[in-house]
Structures
1.
Amino acid sequence: MDSTASNLSGRRSLDARKVVGPKQIFATRVAFFVTGLGVSAWAPLVPFAKSRLMVDDATLGMLILCLGGGSVVSMPVCHQIIRRIGCRAVILLGVGLLATALPLLAFASSIPSMAVSLMLFGAAIGFLDVAINVHALLVEKGTGKVLMSGFHGFFSVGGIVGSVIGSGLLSFGVQPLLVACTMAIGAAALAASAGKSMLAESMRGAGGVGFALPHGAVVAMGLIGLCVFLVEGAMLDWSALFLTVTKAFPERLGGLGYTGFALAMAIGRLLGDVLARYLKPSVIVGIGGVCGAIGIALALIAPSGALAIAGFLLTGAGCANIVPVLFSAVGRQKAMEPGAAVAALTTMGYAGALAGPAAVGFVSHAVGLSAAFALLGGLLLAAAVGGWLLFNDSPA
């Protein structure tokens, strides 16, 4: 049975190469954009959810862990679902779950209902994160072009657009439930419009278990990804506090730190495919990690908040293309079935994004926020060294 499934999967993969063209590239960009849009739609709703539930910060933090739990549970098994029903179906399923969960997040009025809604939202993110990256690998292989960084750039753009639209509507007094429904309908409509051009195929190779532990080069890729995702998660939750506490920056402008980081990352990813055509993966990861660490160092020694934001811009530019390079490489490695490898890399990376804010909080409480950010710089240097060694020693 496994041999038959493998042969069928191989034929589907070969057939995919005959139909991959501009429409499939555009559909992949839409899938990444929709995922970024949906993920960012939750952030503006958090304060309203806290007030509606009348919970303290600790309880809210525990609830948000349900989101991470839903993602971490869904990601490792997603590749098996993709093998059975294909990328297109899983992407559309993930968007459907996302569109269902968003209104629930704006409506849930009890802790149990919010916990279930967050788990559903997290599961949707988990399915989408794995499926869109598998789809991106299929499109890269089918076209023979380097496209991964640009795809991830559309995720970043979607996140920025979602945050701006959500925050803008709420600032004009639109009710959170209506905002959530608007975002859900928009995401579903975009996905549906591009769905017919998405690939129904799965990755070549069979893999017979629901969860595959990472091994071989995938472990190293996962650890590098964990470091970068950890920095991204920490920047999201702590950059504003860093500016206001250590640089005496005005609170109303504290969000500019992450805005600069996110914009630099989005621009870097949109330009990343050009870099990937001329630079080796070892160079992109190595230089990217070093630039990111230099940006953190600049933020630490900066005498003003404005210069610290410049450091965060450099960090975002440095981090921009590390993760896309890892996802491209994980499709070429031979240690694991590609779909399972994507799931493993995504799970490890997301674990870093979840652990990052908590780790910064613990270190900050023990030795100060500046020391915690110095640790982030150290992680980026470790990622740079790891990437340089991995890609110079491996054909991936």
2.
Amino acid sequence: MHIIKKPSREEAREVMPDIQRRNFLKQLGMGAAFVTAATIATGCHKDDDDNNMNGAGISLGSGDVAVLNYAYALEQLEAAFYTQVVLTPYTGITDMELDFFKDIRNHEIGHREFFKAALSTNAIAGLEVDFSSIDFTKRASVLATAKAFEDLGVSAYNGAGQYISSSATGLVYLGLAGKIVSVEACHAAYIRDLIEPGSFAAADVVDANGLDKSRTPADVFNIAKAYIKTKINTNTLPK
């Protein structure tokens, strides 16, 4: 059953109450170095679009911009999902679970808005999502989807880090990605324990060396495309 509800004015104000767009970078501890890095990253977006006409859909750009837009797309998906979870809580949800889902929603919205602000004019447009396969009234459906999204997000960041350039700007991006993926891993562990206590580091996500698994951008979008209606041209993503 697919339920869509738009947030009321009061609900909209509740989302990220303590974070204003003008001070995202300060709140997230990025400082002036990131502002400089984000400024350097602009300027190549127009050319990227012009040179990427051989594929269908929205262009992610190229180089570090493409990697950041890749992360931005995934954060849009997660933010939209958790916003819907909070707006239409599943039957039998506890107060504690709802409070935790509100926290996760706020984190994902923070990540989404962070990338949007950082990319500036290089940012892709807002994506149209498709949650028709999710029954938001059922706990099992919501938790299974949340688990899939969080595991996907962690593996996506793990796989994308190698594609960020070794320039000074790229190293700033890499540090920021590390801060975000650690939060995503906390989400993943919590969701897994809601489904099955003690499963936070199961063998399907952590290998024999104690390392989180990773996915390539192509693998990630192949999974995520079931929930994203907007066509995305992934031709310029690292292979």
